[in-house]
Design goal:
By secondary structure, the protein is of the alpha+beta class. It contains eight helices and 25 strands.
């Protein structure tokens, strides 16, 4: 028996039936997709083999354990649709011992890129010689910007990689448990000479035989299904944010810290990482930030609640000046803004990837290697 988690249009279930599966059980949460996928199954003559259940995988009560699990619970960020959690639950409740899981493993990669197209997209243009660069303070350096929402086809984007792609997160879908996923990752990279405009994210998954599926735009340019991959998954872009040195009093990072323990002026980037960003608070919707008197505000609040508080909201990110909610020593005149970073050939950078608490994305911070760290 084959189990298809997140069966969507039913294409993997139908393919399993075509390849000779005795029985295929598809599980899909979206009612519209359940209705359409059942029509697809019928149109291909597999109603006697394929059954589509309308529920989330954790609600499925199996009458038979599966020999094979196939799943395409992959998003723009590899783990953002819950593939690790779904596979973990399936191993415990839905699969036979030693069942085949497809894909078997996956890795999330990032790469530093130079792109005049991206710079034009994210930089406010000068109008008749008027300098509007201050508007860059409102740019979001905390969130992952999805190419699909930006209207970008990554496989058509003109860009240059300024370092080798580096892994930031890996998972073995036969063994990885969600609690073991890290909250952050540090990577040292060597650069080519150029100007870093953004960090580009892509993933690679593969089966037990090493056959791969990748969202790397470089791998897709010559493939006939490149358009489908751009539309289905796309890529994530992060505007460059340069991390101040450790002795900069305007900056602090707290990992696995309770809100009550966070100093005044700190920022939420999810349950596992809290930051003070050079005079600008970037709110990411999970924990909240703390006022001078230690009172947590905007705790797990919605966009509407933020608007009701009459704070400035741009997209999913809240910006509050440290002049109002400040920690002594923070300089509100020096906010963290996305500024292209010029690098030399063979320069070493440290990239700190701070994962959102639900692993739906990450914030990448770049830091130049200090002289005392060079070898």
């Amino acid at each position: 028996m084959v189990l298809d988690l997140g069966s969507g249009s039913g294409i993997l279930s139908i393919m399993a039936a075509q390849l000779g599966a005795r029985r295929v059980v598809g599980v899909e949460e979206c009612g519209d997709l359940v209705r359409l996928s059942r029509r697809n199954v019928a149109a291909n003559g597999f109603e006697h083999i394929v059954e589509i259940h309308h529920c989330v995988a954790s609600e499925l009560e199996p009458d038979e354990l599966a020999d094979v699990l196939v799943t395409e619970t992959l998003g723009t960020w590899m783990t953002c649709e819950g593939i690790v959690q779904y596979c973990e639950d399936a191993r415990w409740r839905l699969l036979k011992q030693g069942a085949l899981i497809i894909p078997e493993r996956g890795t999330q990669y990032s790469v530093l890129v130079e792109s005049a197209e991206l710079e034009r997209l994210f930089t406010p243009p000068s109008y008749r010689g008027i300098d509007l660069s201050a508007v860059m303070e409102l740019q979001d350096t905390a969130s992952c910007l999805w190419s699909k929402r930006l209207g970008i086809r990554p496989s058509d984007l003109v860009y240059r990689e300024l370092c080798a792609p580096f892994p930031v997160l890996s998972a073995d879908f036969n063994n990885t448990v969600s609690d073991s996923l890290p909250s952050s990752q540090q990577t040292c990279v060597r650069t080519l000479e150029g100007r870093i405009h953004a960090v580009l994210d892509f993933w690679v998954v593969e089966d037990a035989q090493g056959r791969q599926l990748s969202t790397n735009p470089r791998a897709r340019r010559c493939e006939p299904w490149a358009y489908a991959r751009d539309v289905a998954w796309g890529n994530g872009f992060h505007l460059v944010a340069e991390e101040p040195p450790d002795d900069d009093t305007r900056w602090a990072v707290f990992h696995d810290t309770e809100v009550s323990e966070v100093p005044s002026g700190s920022l939420s980037m999810g349950a596992n990482a809290l930051h003070v960003c050079r005079g600008i608070c970037l709110y990411h919707g999970h924990t909240g930030f703390v006022t001078r008197d230690g009172k947590a505000i905007f705790l797990s609040c919605t966009r509407e609640e933020m608007l009701n508080e009459q704070r400035h909201v741009l997209g999913s990110t809240l910006h509050v000046s440290m002049e109002e909610y400040g920690t002594p020593g923070l300089d509100p005149s020096r906010p963290m803004v996305p500024i292209p970073m010029d690098v030399a050939d063979d320069e070493k950078l440290v990239v700190t990837s701070l994962f959102h608490s639900d692993h739906r994305g990450a914030q990448h911070l770049l830091r130049r290697i200090r002289p005392e760290e060079r070898r």
